[in-house]
Amino acid sequence: MAENSIYVRFEVSRGLPDRIFEIVEAARDTDKVKKGTNETIKAIERNNAKLVVMAEDVDPPEILAYVPPLCEEKDVPYGYVSDKIELGYAAGIDVQAASVAFIDPGEAKDELRSVIDELEEIKEEA
Questions:
Q1: What is the pLDDT of residues 2-57, one digit of tens each?
Q2: What is the annotated role of this protein in its UniProt record (predicted)?
Q3: Is 10 a domain residue?
Q4: Lower CB density within 10 Å: C or N end of the chain?
Q5: Distances (CA, A) of 57 to 21, 45, 73
């Protein structure tokens, strides 16, 4: 877990970030993954987001400070991966991404449900 982070609220178990990256990669070509914090926030506010993923290494961390409380307010599950560069790459962009939001997971629907269930268990234990 990122030290001194104001937005990382729980630690994601080993192996889960790899599954998250796989889902991002599977859904990126469907145009149903919103990339970047502004697009992520819009998706949450419009009740379109099925899952929000944030990178733990965002600097300054204030960029994502608003996202977890908004997700909780709108009942959107969220989780973390360690690297913003890898998150951007998985989302199909050549730059880093602080966050992404799934609008429609496409063929990765079952895997997304499994990841969401696991994230909710981890969050309850935290």
A1: 554 788 888 887 789 999 998 888 888 777 899 999 999 999 999 999 999 999 99
A2: Multifunctional RNA-binding protein that recognizes the K-turn motif in ribosomal RNA, the RNA component of RNase P, box H/ACA, box C/D and box C'/D' sRNAs.
A3: no
A4: C
A5: 16, 24, 24
- Look-up of token digits 């234990």: 125
> Does 1 reside within a domain?
no
Burial of 30 (0-12, 13-18, 19+ CB in 10 A): middle
Query: What's the CATH number where 31 sits?
Result: 3.30.1330.30
Neighbours of 17 (CB within 10 A): 21
Pairing verdict, β 33-35 and 78-81:
unpaired
Residue type, 10: F
What does the pLDDT look like over 48-101, one tens digit per residue? Answer: 999 999 999 999 999 999 999 999 999 999 999 999 999 999 999 999 999 999
